[in-house]
Amino acid sequence: MARNPERRTALLDAAIEVLADEGARGLTFRAVDARAGVPTGTSSNYFTDRDQMLSQVADRIFVRLTPAPGALDTALLPAPSRELVVELMRWLARRMAAERSCYLGLFELRLEAARRPELQNRFTEVLRTDLDLNIRLHLDSGMPGDADTVRLLYFALTGLLFDHFTVPGLHGERDLDELIETVVTRIVPAS
Fold it and tell me: What range(s) does the HTH tetR-type domain occupy (predicted)?
């Protein structure tokens, strides 16, 4: 296996773009090589098989979607309130929109995980850890609501972003910020 970490990262980023544009079925070594602009056969020097590439792509997506160090601490500085939850959800949605390919790739990988138990196990572990962290942050920061409030926000934002990225005209003239405010107002109890 080749050991150039920068090249591996470039190949994984190219694989994310392929996933976002062509779906999981379009994710081949040849497609990744073409997207990365490297000679045919390069990605097969970095990944033993497609399953290993899928797993490493998932890891790379989670790295790219993780906020910069300190960003979350800064976002949590204002006093806990329903209004702050609205702003945090909008901040999260903007971050996902900035990494649109990652988010679409994540949807594709989640569908692929339904057919691949090892990928499903990995996703379950990572997403459960992330959800548990979000619940702990919400509760520890004194935000209004409980653990189920965070779960409902997670379900709502996941669905909103899925619609936003796949069928943006579904909600007519209502923009994402407005929809987020409606969701938070309905789910999060007043302070």
Answer: 5-65
